[in-house]
Design a protein that fits this description.
Chain A is mainly alpha-helical. Chain A has eleven helices and two strands. The chains are: A mainly alpha (286), B alpha/beta (242).
Chain lengths: 286, 242
């Protein structure tokens, strides 16, 4: 039993890394553009299908197919900004939310029309790593390491580059940023492109772990949303920490009872946080 | 040259600015004064592009800027400071100034390397006399230091015209002197045109060469400080105020 829990703990941490990356994209978009990307999990699903098609139908080598999938999702991010967000920038919050929520239906139905309702995946045999009684799937480990490295690069991008400086300025004080000569539209495009590419990257990490179907994204949208709000909306560090909390709690509870109970526990934790600290773990009241 | 041409700004049914016209020559130092709510800050908002005028036009170097976006107007060479200094709190003091240096000048972001923007930020902090660690966060700064940071940031965009909005408010006697010296220095050493909104009249009147007076959104006087301060309309507008 002890080994099982320890394994669940390790899996929770590994999963937490990928969830942190997922939450980062959603958080960045909210922090900068001040819009909740309701279809973020569906973007991961779309990215997965792209990689699947590039590799299985077009016979592109897997790593290249993944790179193309990430680029394609970056492009989808730009199109989302252009076609959905830009026209609604000054619209009431609710309209923005509904427009992005309707993207869920658009993307899911489109996926069903193009790829059908079947489960699709790329069969890969990844080795299982063994430490004594502990077994770790290497696909989880790769995803975790990849996610942490990516987050580190994103941190450097935001803190060590001019573009990052501009993004942080727009996130913090839009009016001031405009007065300093920053064109917010350019920053928004870059943010959505980054967010889109990140959803593609998460999809790439998921390829050896899951199979995809048109409703694959729903649980990840919910998961990302829970993590971001739990950590404090727009607070990147808060999202990072809460990804691991949620990852570990769900993984350990799943071993102790079942996956369904784990989801309930995660959401109960979320509701509890909202009651005790509505601004989230590291969020600031606004 | 900045030309304000019959500018009116309505908020709902109230006119914050009513048919205001004046011009500001290159290199001049102009005070924009008036009682509270007379439309001074609204005028700055119109010039800097925060919102467009309801009627009338604004020209800068013969190009119409009314209706342009604030970032484009900043690139044209007009910078402003805010009444309440508001540095971006998650950026360091130097980064706040770097924003202006990197993004305030068109295309600069492509030409800059990290070293250059940093050096430039340091120079501007030195220019305004802000003596604090450039890598610290602007969380716990005195009113005087905040004011200096605000000015360094605006100057870093290398404006031709600086719109200085109540840069003396909330400052003690020493800070007051320092802040007004920065404006003078910007004018003398950088040849900057300055439009200055201020409530602390005795300092303003001594430094500017011309005063434009607004009252209830209407321009009521425009001239040298000595004559404006004797103007009966101006005295009446200020009666009970000071």
């Amino acid at each position: 039993m002890f080994e099982q829990i320890l394994m669940a703990l390790i899996n929770g941490i590994l999963l937490g890394g990928v969830l942190a990356l997922l939450a980062f994209g959603l958080n960045l978009i909210f922090g900068v553009v001040k819009i909740i990307h309701m279809a973020y999990g569906q973007f991961v699903m779309l990215g997965f299908y792209f990689i699947y098609t590039f590799h299985t139908s077009w016979h592109i080598p897997l790593l290249l197919a993944m790179a193309l999938g990430i680029a394609a999702m970056g492009l989808i991010g730009i199109l989302t900004q252009l076609l959905v967000i830009n026209p609604l920038l000054n619209a009431p919050r609710l309209n923005q939310l509904l427009a992005l929520a309707s993207l869920i239906i658009v993307v899911e139905n489109l996926a069903q029309v193009i790829w059908g309702a079947d489960y699709r995946g790329i069969p890969l045999s990844m080795p299982i790593i063994q430490f004594g009684e502990i077994f770790i799937r290497s696909s989880f480990l790769i995803a975790f390491i990849g996610a942490i490295v990516t987050l580190w690069f994103l941190y450097l991008f935001l803190n060590r580059t001019y573009l990052g400086l501009g993004i942080r300025a727009v996130a913090q004080d839009l009016e001031m940023a405009k007065g300093m000569g920053i064109n917010p539209k350019v920053i928004y495009y870059i943010t959505l492109m980054t967010g889109g590419a990140l959803s593609g990257l998460v999809a790439a990490f998921f390829v050896p772990i899951y199979t995809v179907h048109p409703h694959f994204g729903a649980s990840f949208t919910l998961m990302a949303f829970v993590i971001v709000v739990f950590g404090g909306m727009g607070n990147l560090m808060g999202g990072f920490i809460s990804a691991f909390i949620i990852g570990i709690v769900t993984s350990v509870t799943a071993v102790l009872s079942s996956k369904e109970v784990a989801d309930i526990v995660a959401l109960l934790m979320f509701i509890g946080m909202m009651m005790v600290r509505p601004e989230g773990l590291l969020g600031t009241e606004s | 040259m900045l030309e304000i041409n019959h500018v009116t700004k309505m908020f709902g049914g109230i006119s914050a600015l009513a048919d205001v016209s004046f011009t500001v020559e290159d290199g001049s130092f102009v005070g924009l004064i008036g009682p509270n709510g007379s439309g001074k800050t609204t005028m700055f908002n119109v010039i800097s592009g925060a919102f467009p005028p309801s009627q009338g036009r604004v020209f800068f170097d013969d190009q119409e800027i009314s209706g342009m976006k604030p970032n484009a107007i900043c690139h044209m060479g007009i910078a402003r400071t805010f009444q309440i200094p508001q540095p971006i709190k998650s950026l360091t003091v130097a980064e706040n100034v770097m924003l202006g240096a990197v993004f305030g000048v068109k295309q600069a972001v492509r030409r800059y390397d990290a070293r250059r923007a940093w050096d430039e930020a340091r120079q501007w902090l030195e220019f305004v006399g802000l003596k604090m660690d450039p890598d610290s966060l602007p969380g716990m700064m005195t009113a005087g230091d905040l004011r200096k940071l605000e000015m360094a940031r605006a100057l870093a965009t290398r404006p031709k015209i600086l719109l200085a909005d109540e840069v003396l408010s909330g400052l003690n006697r020493d800070e007051l002197k320092e802040a007004s010296q920065i404006l003078q220095k910007a004018r003398e050493q950088l040849g900057m045109t300055i439009i200055w909104v201020e409530h602390i009249m005795h300092v303003l009147m001594r430094l500017v060469e011309r005063v434009v007076v607004l009252n209830h959104g209407v321009l009521i006087a425009d001239g040298e400080p000595a004559e404006v301060s004797k103007d009966e309309g101006v005295i009446e507008a200020y009666l009970g105020q000071n």
